[in-house]
Amino acid sequence: MAPPNRPAPRTLTVLAKRHVTPNMLRLTLGGDGMAGFPPGRQGGYVKLNLPQGAGKPAVRTYTIRAQRDGAAGGEIDLDFALHAETATGHAGPATEWAMTVEPGAEVLVGGPGPAKPLPAGHSFYLLAGDMTALPAISVNIEALPADARGLAVIEVMSLEDRQDIAGPEGFEVQWLVAEQPGLGAAEHLQAIRDAGWGAEDLYAWVAAEFSTMQALRSYLRDERGLGPDRLYISSYWKSGLNEEAHKLAKREDAEAQA
Ligand SMILES: Cc1cc2nc3c(=O)[nH]c(=O)nc-3n(C[C@H](O)[C@H](O)[C@H](O)COP(=O)(O)OP(=O)(O)OC[C@H]3O[C@@H](n4cnc5c(N)ncnc54)[C@H](O)[C@@H]3O)c2cc1C
Q1: CB under 6 Å to ligand 1: residues?
Q2: Which residue out of 25, 49, 56, 61 has the highest number of ligand 1 atoms within 8 Å of its CB and is therefore the one to mutate?
Q3: CATH code 2.40.30.110 for 10-110
Q4: Nearest CA to ligand 1 atom 27
Q5: What pLDDT band is residue 199 in, cutting at 50, 70 and 90?
Q6: What is the CATH number of domain 124-257?
Q7: What pLDDT band is residue 82 in, cutting at 50, 70 and 90?
Q8: For residue 117, how many C-alpha atoms fall within 13 Å in the half-sphere facing its CB?
Q9: Of the candidates 204, 158, 160, which has an alpha carbon nearest to the alpha carbon of residue 184?
């Protein structure tokens, strides 16, 4: 049974599947199970429950890249970074599922969890992340007011994985290419050091692989002194660990930081 306050997972239908870029696959989910899905959750996350034979289902977290209203409760888009096509070798259950599923299939979906929008009123926004964070970063940039200024540094697996993001005119996007995700911490940190932001009223939003998150955290929080009111930072996955093991590593890290 779902704990109190947490809605029971719903069964959604895969409505469509297409590549956004070579290493980013978009699935549209919808159907009758969307009845009662709360509106305005783009940028929030859902939990896919993927059956694993006789064992417990694998639970994997994905960002709602877009949400559209519709007669049957609407539909949501999820974007999957296809990490199996990298040198890390094997796909995890979510990536494998996304690559092989066909429209018409059903999937059990928990959530949605809340979005973490950028707080209004800062003079400069710095966003950083890899392809797993690209859906959330895109939602966040698209929601900024037309006069907002900022920079996003986004790591992608190839130049072809860059996407058009409809941001304000004063917002710059810098793309870093790291064929193998999870090894780009040094380049990411350098790009952010080089960005030249100064005494501005900065807000930083980071979601990345664990070691990149740690490198950026020690720079932004410890060197540049950004407190929690000006910094959101999270790891979305950890190289070499599946999501269950990453969750444990994340909890240990949070306890060590407390
Ligand atoms: C709040 C939140 C939102 C997220 N949103 C998205 C999203 O919108 N799109 C998205 O693609 N991911 C997103 N992620 C990350 C995603 O949940 C993880 O990448 C997850 O581990 C993928 O599950 P899997 O079953 O494919 O691989 P797992 O079974 O978890 O892992 C198998 C192996 O693949 C490696 N691995 C996992 N992810 C990657 C990766 N991205 N690149 C290279 N190797 C990897 C693992 O280290 C492990 O060795 C999000 C995570 C969080 C916490």
Answers
A1: 45, 60-63, 79-81, 83, 86, 88, 91-95, 132, 135, 181-182, 236-243
A2: 61
A3: no
A4: 92
A5: low
A6: 3.40.50.80
A7: very high
A8: 10
A9: 158
